[in-house]
Design goal:
Elements: H1 3-22, E1 23-26, E2 30-36, E3 39-44, E4 47-50, E5 56-63, E6 67-68, E7 72-77, E8 83-94, H2 97-103, H3 107-124, H4 128-133, H5 135-150, E9 155-166, H6 169-249, H7 251-270, H8 282-301
Antiparallel strand pairs: 1-4, 2-3, 2-5, 6-8, 7-8, 8-9
Helix pairs in contact: 3-5, 6-7, 7-8
C-alpha cells in the first residue's frame, strides 16, 4: 500500500471519528448544555443531535426529573408567641437548564435556604391553632412564594409539604386543657339547646291542644247553630203551611188544627207509663165529635 492510500485511509478514519464525535444521544430524562469555546450556545433535548466536534462540547448534563429536597426541620415562632418545629420538604424540577447551570452553583442548598426563610415567614403570620388547621393553605402560599424566588434559577417548584408540626410538652398540655374546656363548653351548649328545644316542643303541644279544643268548641257551636236554624226553618215552614191552610179553609182549618193537637195530647197522656187511670171530661167527647164534623166539612170543601 502506497503512502497516498495510507493518508486517504487515515483521513477517512478521522472523518468517521469526527462525525461520530458530533452525534449526541440525549436520554428522555436529561438535557445537555452545549458550549462553544466556553460560551453557552444551545441546549440539546431528548433524541439524537449533532454538534461540531472540537468546536462545541457538552459542558453539562442536567436531569429534568422531578426531585425532592431532603426533609428539613426549622424552628418557628407563631403569631401567638408559641415556638414550634416544622418539618417540611420541597419538590422541584429543572425547566431551564442553562439558568440552573449558569446562575447558581448548588441549587439544592439555594432552594433549602429560600424555603427555610419562606416557611418561617408564612408560619409566623399564623397562630398555633391556625397553623395546625390551615396546613393546606400554608403549603400553597409557600409553594407560590418559593416558585417566584426559584424562577430565576430555571427551577419550577411543583409542591411543598409541611409534613409535621411539633410542639413541646407544656404546649401539648395547654392544648389538652383548652380542648377539654372546649368540649365542656360544647356539652353545656348542647344541653342548653336541648332544654330550650324541649320547652319549645312542650309549648307547641299546649298551643296545639288549645287550638284543637277551640276548634272543637267552634265546631260544636256551628252544629248547634245549624240545628237551631233547621228547627227554625221547619217551624217557619209549618207556620207557613198553617197560614196557607187558614187562607184556604178559614176558621174550620184553625179549629181542625186546635182539635188535632188536643187529640194528640190525649193520646200521649194515655200512652204514658205513669198513667194508671185516665179520667176524661165530657169536653173530650165533644172534641172528638167536633173533630169528626170538621174532617167531613174539610172534605166537603175540598
Amino acid at each position: 500500500m502506497d503512502l497516498l492510500s495510507i493518508i486517504a485511509l487515515l483521513v477517512l478514519t478521522l472523518a468517521v471519528l469526527f462525525v461520530l464525535m458530533g452525534f449526541k444521544i440525549v436520554p428522555q430524562s436529561d438535557v445537555f448544555v452545549v458550549e462553544r469555546f466556553g460560551k453557552y450556545t444551545q441546549t440539546l433535548t431528548a433524541g439524537v443531535s449533532f454538534i461540531v466536534p472540537l468546536v462545541n462540547r457538552v459542558a453539562h448534563k442536567v436531569s429534568i426529573l422531578e426531585r425532592q429536597l431532603p426533609e428539613f426541620t426549622i424552628s418557628v415562632i407563631t403569631k401567638d408567641n408559641v415556638e414550634v418545629d416544622l418539618k417540611a420538604t420541597v419538590f422541584f424540577r429543572v425547566i431551564d437548564a442553562a439558568a440552573t447551570v449558569y446562575r447558581i452553583r448548588e441549587i439544592d442548598k439555594a432552594l433549602f435556604t429560600a424555603a427555610t426563610s419562606i416557611v418561617r415567614s408564612a408560619a409566623g403570620r399564623l397562630e398555633l391553632d391556625e397553623l395546625q388547621s390551615s396546613r393546606e393553605s400554608m403549603n400553597t402560599e409557600i409553594s407560590s412564594n418559593l416558585g417566584e424566588a426559584a424562577g430565576v434559577w430555571g427551577i419550577e417548584v411543583t409542591r411543598t409539604e409541611v409534613t409535621d408540626i411539633m410542639v413541646d410538652e407544656q404546649t401539648k398540655e395547654a392544648q389538652r386543657q383548652q380542648l377539654n374546656a372546649e368540649r365542656q363548653r360544647r356539652a353545656q351548649i348542647a344541653a342548653a339547646e336541648g332544654a330550650k328545644r324541649a320547652t319549645e316542643l312542650a309549648a307547641d303541644a299546649r298551643l296545639y291542644e288549645s287550638q284543637r279544643a277551640a276548634e272543637a268548641i267552634r265546631v260544636e257551636a256551628d252544629a248547634d247553630a245549624y240545628s237551631v236554624k233547621i228547627a227554625a226553618d221547619a217551624e217557619a215552614e209549618q207556620t207557613r203551611l198553617i197560614a196557607e191552610a187558614i187562607n184556604q179553609n178559614g176558621r174550620a182549618a184553625v179549629e181542625f188544627e186546635v182539635l188535632k193537637r188536643q187529640v194528640d195530647a190525649i193520646a200521649t197522656l194515655a200512652s204514658s207509663n205513669n198513667a194508671k187511670t185516665l179520667i176524661m171530661p165530657t169536653d173530650v167527647t165533644k172534641t172528638l165529635g167536633s173533630l169528626s164534623t170538621l174532617v167531613d166539612q174539610l172534605k166537603g170543601d175540598a
